[in-house]
Amino acid sequence: MTYNIHHANPPSKEETGEIDLDAIVHVIRKENPDLVALQEVDVNTKRSGKGNQAEIIAGKLGMKAFFGRAIDHQGGFYGVAILSRYPLLETSVTPLPEDAAPASEDRVLATAKVKLPGGMVIRFGSTHLDVDSPENREQQVKAINAIAAKENMPFIVAGDFNAVPESSAVRELDKRFTRTCVSDCAPTIPVDKPDRAIDFIAYSKEAPFKVVSQKVIPERYASDHLPVVATLRY
Fold first, then answer.
1. Would residue 221 count as lying in a domain?
2. I need a labelling partner for 23 at 20 to 30 A (CA). Which of 99, 171, 184, 206 fits?
3. What are 168-181's pLDDT values in tens digits?
4. Is residue 157 in a domain?
5. Are 164 and 158 in contact (CB under 8 A)?
6. For the chain, how many structural domains are there in total?
């Protein structure tokens, strides 16, 4: 699963700033994924309160969590995260480039090594690309592709790419990865009347995966994005 959780602030509660972590937990629990890439996650911020949102969500689900800080925000941190049913090993956070628009919000790729049932070991990553600059997004994907090119194990990357399938950034992604949705991707944003797909799950072309299913979950309360769920067989 990949899910931009909007720091657990439901769009209908944006003016009041209400935080509803249980709504996010409910969405994830219903789909019962093994691995989750989260974006827009708060840790100890003024708007969301004390606590690591990724760890709180993981605790309620019986999962492991790893948070990747992108920026300092309101006295705490803001970034992406990985949730997993299996132990997370060799975790890392890699800053992504933003040469085209250096004033843009910093972006990162968080990754972890995961040993799956049956013994396969994979790299799983969560990312959230630049929202404003197409050139930054393309450069950020090139950086992710360069990391994937050096990886000797199957690599799954998922997240909010802030780019539609026809964009230069997603075309760049497709050079190194296979998206679980290749054509006619169901829209993931805006949540009230979705009209474009910008959230994707993809795996390295060398990985021995086959897509069993791919779907966008029509859950319109918990966040301003719809979550994406894919089942891969190996």
1. no
2. 184
3. 999 999 999 999 99
4. yes
5. no
6. 1
